[in-house]
Amino acid sequence: MPGTEPSAPGYWVVGRITAPHGIRGEVKVDVMTDFPERFRPGAALYLGVSDADPEARRVSVVSVRPHKQALLVRLDVTPDRNAAELLRDHYLMILETEAMPLGEHENFVHDLIGLEVETTDGEALGTVVEILFTRANDVYVVRGPRGEVLLPALRDVILKVDLPAHKMTIALPDGLI
User: Fold this and answer.
1) pLDDT value at position 121?
2) Residue 164 is part of which domain span?
């Protein structure tokens, strides 16, 4: 019967392998999570080419150390540089069931992408297509009839996120458009 098959596990990306580092099998990882402690030695992660990779495989973190704006991670599947080189542009992921609980006024990025954005006056601005992570605050990139609009993710701007209605209501700051 259609729809009764078990679904494949959902993965969430926590890091991207950008390059091998050294000769001992370390890889340079751009961290893509607010919880870098996920990379502690002994941690189980999943390795794949995307978050929808049906062939993602479970790997373990052997060692980790900071390096500039990234981490140097050695996995149980990278005994040397040659093995590490094969993992360039792969993603390190967790099962979505292992996600940290959200705090008040927090949303997962994947829940915000695709939301329809409108002002308090009911003007449709478009759809959230990307989120930029800056030091000051996140910025939601909205594309629609007025072109691309960059909205600061501040409580006085983002008034309501209604996930069931697939809608975000905002107070348009003066001079933004």
Assistant:
1) 92
2) 109-170
